[in-house]
Amino acid sequence: MAKKSAALAFAVALGLTACGSDDTTSESPAETDADAPADTAAPEPNAEPEPEPVATESAAPTTVAEEAGDIEPLSVVVTASIHGDIVRAALGDAVPTLVEVEVVMPLGADPHDFAPSARDAEAMEQADLLVVNGLGLEEGLAGVIDAVADSGTRVFAFTDHAGLSLEADEGHSDHDHGDEDHGDEDHGDEDHDHGDEDHGDEDHGDEDHGDGDHDHGDEDHGDEDHDHGDEDHGDEDHGDEDKAVEDDHDHDHDHDHGGVDPHVWMDPMAMVSVVEALGDELIELGLDASTIEANIADYVEALQAKDDEVRATLEPIPAERRVLITNHDAFGYFADRYDLDVVGAIIPSLTTSADVSASDLDDLTGMIRELGVPAIFAETTESDRLAQALADQVGGDLTIVQLYSGSLGEPGSGAETYLDYLSLNATLIADALA
Question: Cα 419 from chain centroid?
Answer without folding.
Answer: 13
